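[step 3/7] inverse_fold.run input=structure_tokens len=203
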């Protein structure tokens, strides 16, 4: 690759990221279905035609944001599942990790919460597919634990779905928390996780 080609490729990647960053900022106040590409390109300072060098349409940009938003969730899930099985320590760490994730990625979490049931089908399907993939990863980790011995794959996958749904629900609640409400929400989340754990032991 020539130095000129390398510079052009780097510039293309920077412009693509700038479009995604601008869209994410604009989506703080509106849904993806109401956001026009001209609004995004105006913020970035490029011509509307330049948008199509990076994305087919706004739905395509939204799918890219889903991938970016959920990319770090792999790390979150691995941290949640690390450590002793079914312990209060794991429960406490799970809620702490989710709270940390929301604080660090508020715009991404808000985007996912709004668009999970939003008006752009491609984005809804992308979010559902990513969460299903995370559910499969959690199921693999749970199946390897001693407490899951003798469980069917279907039951392990159902349990994994409960954990993933709880993670999403807790993240959404923390995102919308009023000042001073985070501790109460975190306490409720820990109690809910302990209830899931209790049910797992006696399934």
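[step 3/7] decode complete -> sequence:
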């Amino acid at each position: 690759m020539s130095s000129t080609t390398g510079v052009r490729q780097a510039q293309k990647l920077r412009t693509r990221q700038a479009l995604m960053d601008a869209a994410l900022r604009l989506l703080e106040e509106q849904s993806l279905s109401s956001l026009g590409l001209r609004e995004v390109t105006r913020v970035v300072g490029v011509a509307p035609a330049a948008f199509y060098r990076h994305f087919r349409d706004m739905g395509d940009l939204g799918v890219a944001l889903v991938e970016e938003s959920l990319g770090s969730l792999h790390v979150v899930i691995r941290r949640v599942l690390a450590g002793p099985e079914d312990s209060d320590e794991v429960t406490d760490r799970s809620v702490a990790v989710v709270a940390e994730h929301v604080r660090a990625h508020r715009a991404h979490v808000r985007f996912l919460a709004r668009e999970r049931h939003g008006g752009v089908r491609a984005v809804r399907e992308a979010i559902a597919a990513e969460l299903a993939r995370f559910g499969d990863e959690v199921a693999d980790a749970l199946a390897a634990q001693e407490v899951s011995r003798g469980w069917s794959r279907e039951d392990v996958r159902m349990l994994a779905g409960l954990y993933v749904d709880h993670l999403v629900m807790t993240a959404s609640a923390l995102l919308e928390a009023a000042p001073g409400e985070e501790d109460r929400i975190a306490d409720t989340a820990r109690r809910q996780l302990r209830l899931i754990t209790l049910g797992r032991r006696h399934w």
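[step 4/7] annotate
The chain is about 75% helix and 0% strand.
Residues 15 and 56 are 15 Å apart (CA to CA).
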